[in-house]
Automatic annotation (TrEMBL):
Keywords: Membrane, Transmembrane, Transmembrane helix. The chain crosses the membrane at residues 12-30, 42-64, 76-93, 98-115. The keyword Transmembrane applies. The lineage of its organism: Bacteria, Pseudomonadati, Pseudomonadota, Alphaproteobacteria, Hyphomicrobiales. This is Branched-subunit amino acid transport protein AzlD. It comes from the Bacteria.
Length: 116
């Protein structure tokens, strides 16, 4: 058996499709099977939500405090102000995610226009 077929043009696409499918669908189906048996207020589900929330908070903190790309040219104070005002709007207006994002973007864009 030779490995000549690894050099064909289509092999990377097959590998990505199979590896991507196995890596995601396996866990999705496992989540469906296990999740159907969990109560909404079970300790395991509360822990999973807490971990997911912590991961999202960590990603947001990294983007605000250690940004890459064009965001690193925005002053830290403006980034923190946008984060704070966006979160305040989210809480004040019945916890609608799009409101918080829109306010934070408006503060960032408005601050950049005023500063630059």
């Amino acid at each position: 058996m030779s490995y000549q077929w690894l050099d064909t043009w289509w092999w990377p696409y097959v590998f990505i499709a199979v590896a991507g499918w196995l890596a995601t669908d396996l866990w999705r189906w496992l989540g469906v099977v296990v999740g159907a048996r969990l109560k909404d207020d079970s300790l395991l589900l509360i822990w999973v939500r807490a971990v997911a929330t912590a991961l999202v908070a960590a990603v947001i903190a990294k983007l605000v405090l250690y940004p890459s790309g064009e965001l690193k040219h925005v002053p830290v104070a403006l980034r923190l102000l946008a984060l704070g005002l966006g979160f305040a709007a989210f809480l004040a207006l019945r916890q609608r995610v799009w409101v918080g994002i829109a306010v934070a973007l408006a503060v960032l864009i408005g601050g950049q226009l005023l500063l630059g």
